[in-house]
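Module 6 notes. Inverse folding takes a fixed backbone as the condition and produces residue identities as the prediction. Think of it as a translation problem where the source language is geometry and the target language is the twenty amino acids. Below is one complete input and output pair. Work through it position by position during the lab.
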């Protein structure tokens, strides 16, 4: 038996309407809180939208499971905000999420001109609001993350007190960069600890393993895995669980995103256990995030046991990561 105190998913997509109602309870079962991404069809780019989305999430969860403890930590979609807007939003958000325009799912409203964001980033630094970044350039897809490191370097030089999160890092280069810059943290997904490009495109194309940033080389994957298992203090678990209905994945023009919410904690337990590093899991799924963000999660104990189960083929319209596979750890009380 393994009990985790207040496990956190520090990068999560919950969507809206029926999809929200399908996926949010699955995260609420595993995690005490999660950082919710703002890339809805209409981006969450005002305090009113944050409030409306937050209450939709809470409503979806409480309808499905009445007494569950779960806090959505909200983010604002980056645009150029005024000081008054950020001061008003600050108590209700955990950070501001920046997407380069068009780089991933529902990011069209993102940043086109990085020279035009300085005033808002200066306010984030001054008000001590973390900036969460989808760090990819528009270059060759395997090089995008490494190329974007220059943007991080400029941000760090210009805003030395800004709290900066590199989201879902997928390369050894990003890890090396992180090690040189104390003011940063990085989230790491489950799938980037497991996959390489070969898993997605090396044989028959696997649309359910297609996500942004795409999985990279074995060397990248192994570097991330080693650092996480060694207990790197600024690597934070963020699933980037990103549900898309099957018909938008299994088609010409597959949507980017892997839905990992229901398997995230069991599979992490399996990876840490197999490496003989179970004792390092608590820091990855809670302590490292808390230290960086300086927040307190709700109290919640989540128990897992070493007992095989088979991952369902579908959750509503979505096919989960590792569908049909047997995992060695499961949530206690999990309905499978
Ligand atoms: C995410 C989504 O579907 O919203 N997709 C993905 O491939 N990770 C967006 C994102 O985080 O890039
Ligand atoms: Zn994401």
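Target side of the pair, the amino acids:
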């Amino acid at each position: 038996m393994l009990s985790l105190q207040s496990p956190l998913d520090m990068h999560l997509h919950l969507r809206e309407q029926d999809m929200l109602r399908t996926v949010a309870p699955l995260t609420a079962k595993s995690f005490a809180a999660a950082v919710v991404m703002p890339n809805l069809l209409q981006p969450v780019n005002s305090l009113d939208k944050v409030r409306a989305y937050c209450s939709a999430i809470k409503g979806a969860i409480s309808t499905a499971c009445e007494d569950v403890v779960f806090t959505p930590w909200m983010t604002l979609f980056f645009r150029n905000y005024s000081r008054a807007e950020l001061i008003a939003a600050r108590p209700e958000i955990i950070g501001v999420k920046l997407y380069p325009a068009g780089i991933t799912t529902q990011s069209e409203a993102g940043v086109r001109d990085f020279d035009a964001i300085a005033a808002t980033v200066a306010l984030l630094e001054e008000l001590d609001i973390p900036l969460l970044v989808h760090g990819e350039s528009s270059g060759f897809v395997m090089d995008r993350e490494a190329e974007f490191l220059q943007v991080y370097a400029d941000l760090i030089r210009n805003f030395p007190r800004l709290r900066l999160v590199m989201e879902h890092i997928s390369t050894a280069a990003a890890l090396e960069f992180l090690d040189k810059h104390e003011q940063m943290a990085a989230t790491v997904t489950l799938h980037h600890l497991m996959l390489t490009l070969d898993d997605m495109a090396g044989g028959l194309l696997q649309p359910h393993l297609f996500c942004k940033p795409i999985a990279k080389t074995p060397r990248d994957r192994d570097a991330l895995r080693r650092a996480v298992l060694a207990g790197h203090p600024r690597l934070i678990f963020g699933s980037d669980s990103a549900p898309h209905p099957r018909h938008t994945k299994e088609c010409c023009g597959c949507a980017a995103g892997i839905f990992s919410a229901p398997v995230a904690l069991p599979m992490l337990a399996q990876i840490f256990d197999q490496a003989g590093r179970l004792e390092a899991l608590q820091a990855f799924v809670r302590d490292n995030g808390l230290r960086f963000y300086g927040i307190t999660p709700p109290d919640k104990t989540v128990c897992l046991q070493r007992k095989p189960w088979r991952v369902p083929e579908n959750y509503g319209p979505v096919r989960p990561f590792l569908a049909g596979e047997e995992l060695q750890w499961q949530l206690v009380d999990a309905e499978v």
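Reference fact for the lab report: Residues 311 and 322 are 7 Å apart (CA to CA).
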